[in-house]
Amino acid sequence: MKHVSPTSWRGQFLIGESVPDVPGAWRHRLRTLEIPGFDPLQKILVRDAAGRCVGTLLGAPVDARTGRLPEGIYQAGSVAGEDIDAFIEREIMSLTGSWLFLLDAPGARRLYMDAAGSLPAVYRPETRSVAATSLLLLEPGEERARFRQGLYDTLNILRDGWFPGRLTAHEGIHRLLPNHYLDMNDFTTHRHWPQGEIARTDTPRAACGHILECMRATMRPCLAREGLSITLTAGNETRMLLAAARPSTRRRSLSPWPAAKPGSTGCAPANWPGVSG
Fold this sequence. Notes:
Blueprint lengths: L13 E2 L10 E4 L4 E4 L5 E5 L5 E10 L10 E3 L8 H9 L3 E10 L2 E6 L8 E3 L4 E3 L10 H4 L3 H6 L2 H4 L13 E2 L4 E4 L5 E3 L12 H23 L1 E5 L3 H10 L6 E5 L10 E3 L8
Parallel strand pairs: 4-6, 14-15
Antiparallel strand pairs: 1-10, 2-3, 4-5, 5-7, 7-8, 8-12, 9-10, 9-11, 12-13, 14-16
Helix pairs in contact: 5-6
């Protein structure tokens, strides 16, 4: 692996069955998978109702249902005898915030991301490994050899700024998309949401009110902890964020996106460490 400097990988991670030592990283071992990660990225063990560790959350999840910010251990419900998809939808996808969930249970090894895909993950099937960025998956000399210069020029990345869909800047490395999970057994991806037709409404005002309340339910635990820091762009999502944050004007700060901490997205507690992606 190409490790330039421990400080280069602030907030990043690797996932695999047998990951080489990474200078400056902490290491977390699950049933069959392991995660070297770099501070300030936090790891949270997920335990089912029987007390068994079934996986790990990475990042900064928010439990809007209980009004808590999970730390250390996240207590989930029962998974025994239940459809894994139903367990994930009820216990994991109900979390807001910015996170990844690595499921490592008998019969299922999967990687999920939050609904917005705000904590990125890329994967390399050839080496059966996942990381926050492509550089952590490349051997010395591969960065230039695998760089997609032709595609970079064709898509005018210098102007538009990103590769679409699952594409990344390097051959053989793919991006995990929101609403999909990565099967860690065969490194195929599968859509887990929506499972059917998305419900439509005839009352958009009521629907917007429900969305605003969901956003405020995410903000409240952050406000209770230490205030709120919101990063803004010039898009429509900024207008929704500002509307949702109006009741909390005394305990929140606003900043334009370029001035925000690296990797910070949406809203977070005021001194929550940013996670670089």
